[in-house]
Amino acid sequence: MKRLLVLLTTSIFIVAFAYGQKIPIRGVVADEKGEPLEGVTILLKGKTASAISRSDGSFLINVEDVKNGVLVVSMVGYTTQDVPINGKVDLHIVLATSARDMKDVIVVSALGLTKRQKSIGYSTQSVDPNRITEARDVNITDALAGKVAGLQVTTTGQPGSSTRVVIRGENSITGNNQPLWVVDGVPIQNDMGDGRGDNLDYGNGAADLNPDDIASIEVLKGPNAAALYGSRAANGAILVTTKKGKTGDRTLGISLDQNTMWNTISEFPKYQNEYGEGGNGSLVTNGNNIVPGTGAVRMGTSGSTWGMPMLGQPFDNFAGQPIPGGYLPQPSNITSFYKTSITNTSNLSISKGDANGSFRLSYTNLYSNDVLENQNLIKRNTVSLSGTRKINWLTLNTWVLFTNQDTRDRTVRNLDPASPMAAYVYMPRSFNISALNPYVDPLTGNSIALGSTSSFENPYWSLNEDKNEDTHNRVIGGLSAISRLSSSLSLRLQGATDMNFLSSWQYRELGGKQTPQGSYGNLEQHNINNDYQALLMFNKQLS
């Protein structure tokens, strides 16, 4: 009976272990002609796992159930496919061109004019706004990845950081290659936030757009498509139309949306766990670093992982106390710093109309953190209001978007020693993280010195003591008046503004040195751009 229980228990553990393991599934996506497709979205049905195909059409996605799992493969212009894995670890997927008839499709073109797809002589592509609200990103620009042919999205993956978009490749070596963002016919600021010299990335302007307020996104590709916006749109344009109330709809519309998304790191680099800190195959290159009477070496005598095999040799922490087990591999000394992050978004909108006008009011609250403890803590409040009113021969439209965002402890960039990510790259494989915490030297109140390891600071100090915070307020709004001059001609006058206010401060140890001094930085930045338009419009825009 005991043997039977042991066998049953062992079998349960084996099955549970096998089920919990993620198996990499590789594949290639091509079109009907056999040409590889870049930017194809691959989702694991019913799960959060996803991947994007590379330039050669290849992709890699980790799944738990290779027998019953199903991949949803999609790309704009192609028919979406459900591909059963059926136990295979190498897939070849062919997407068929979508047979959608474009002759009756209505799109938004330059200056907010609506036209039929068949009448346009340049390339455009629409993005379904529902697809950017299902799996949300803090920066709406990140959500465009894999949804538009020829559009490349480059991001650091850090919540709240800048995201770069390029349509049809680079056009200039020294200039700006990003498209122009236009909201309700008004060009807005979309400067990258990583050029202020303090190794912090404050995000780009398009991140202030709220997915819950977007009715449509249209991408105009190339200078011909966006010629009416002049040289600013030489690299194309991304047109965003926000939601409005419906004139004639007298019912009170109330919408409440709640979205919660968890993120975790699915795969880490494969670290070797045979050789620890040291150089030239030796644990220590200077006999003075050997603790007299014990033969032990103090951790941190070398910042590289080119030492001898880790076999349990005597090893002391920074306080000179023996480390249990000695000089041994620490396979989780990097991965233990990371956790599951959460992005929570709540939206409430109210709309109503009558025979001569309408309004819509929307409020959105967003909270997001990062997979690193106490890093990139974002709180954002967004309020948008739009209204329209017909007064005899004149139609007045007004809209305003207000964003308030507070971000604490943005991760320092560029492998700065103060960045916890520096430990991700430079920490020797023998570093025992129990010796890094407590991270404060009780005698000086500063970070515990890491010996001769100077490529990174104590990551616990970076996560808890190196501080920064910025407050960002932005107002985008405008007023337009449309007068119908005749049955086929209208005059539109429009004025709009885009006001951006940023204030921030930063505190950190000077140069990673263990001194009681601190480095303080304050930033105040104000940008105000105004836009005025006058346009004669033919009323038969859709013909």
Annotation keywords:
five-stranded mixed β-sheet; 543 residues; mainly beta
List the helices and strands and how they pair.
Layout: H1 2-20, E1 23-30, E2 41-44, E3 50-52, E4 58-63, E5 70-74, E6 81-84, E7 90-94, E8 106-108, E9 114-116, E10 124-127, H2 131-134, E11 151-155, E12 163-167, E13 180-183, E14 186-187, E15 214-220, E16 237-242, E17 253-263, E18 297-298, E19 315-316, E20 341-354, E21 357-368, E22 377-391, E23 394-408, H3 420-426, H4 459-464, E24 467-484, E25 489-508, E26 519-538
Parallel strand pairs: 1-7, 13-16, 18-19
Antiparallel strand pairs: 1-4, 2-3, 2-5, 5-6, 8-9, 10-15, 11-12, 13-14, 15-16, 17-20, 20-21, 21-22, 22-23, 23-24, 24-25, 25-26
Descriptive report:
The termini are far apart. With about 550 residues, the chain is mostly beta strands.
How much helix, percentage-wise, in residues? under 10%
Mean pLDDT: 82
Strand content: 35-45%
Which structural class matches the secondary elements? Answer: mainly beta
User: What is the terminal-to-terminal distance?
Assistant: 83 Å
- The gyration radius over C-alpha positions equals 28 Å
- Main sheet overview: 8 strands, antiparallel
* Secondary-structure element order, N to C: HEEEEEEEEEEHEEEEEEEEEEEEEHHEEE
Order of adjacent strands in the largest pleated sheet: 17-20-21-22-23-24-25-26
Number of helices: 4
The count of strands amounts to 26
Which parts are unreliable, with pLDDT below 50 for 5 consecutive residues or more? 4-20, 510-518
- What's the shape? globular
